[in-house]
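**Protein of interest**
===
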Amino acid sequence: MTAKPTDINKIFASNAPATSIRDPDIANAGKYQLGWVNERPPYQTFNYAQNKVDRALSHINEYGVSEWDSETSYPLGGWARSTVDGNVYVSLTVSNQNNEPSASSSQWISLYSDVFSNFLTLDGVGSGLDADKVQGLDADFSSLLNSSGYQKLPGGLIIQWGLTTTNATTIFPIAFPVYCRVVVGNDYGTFSGNTFNPSTVSASSFTLLTAQTGRYIAIGH
């Protein structure tokens, strides 16, 4: 791994007068692309080249992603930061040129509003991860950690628990969105010794064959 150099934001020839920094293409068109042959480059040209490299490195170091410009042809998946709204965008097309990202939704997708928005949907206090969907996968990790509560898991599985009372029907802390697969439990207290036997189970509640006080765990989705 290459270590980050010190003084990366120090720009070569940043204090030099304008006459000491000169683009070689001004005097000889195409020279910048051609490079040196066997001549000795003037110091102004050397200052220009080194200054340009240092400014580019410093720019990327500060922003992480370079600013969008109209000259660059961005490939599919290329990144650029819009100078209009400051957001980072990803190119949706090949040879993407002269399309300002914040104004070209068919050419660019915003990492913040379009991609990361799936991670920014609030699930409520204590959810652990503020997300409803991660690439289409249910990823709601919210929970209620009380004597009667629940825990949501990736993929949509939900585990619930609580206490039954002498009433025959017990309401789950939250209704299962689709189905309750199983309810198991044990009895305690006054009705100790009775068999924990649910006779009817729905997505929102279950009914014991015999009213009794007990503890239960329910699993569903």
In short: Helices lie at 24-27, 31-34, 43-63, 111-115.
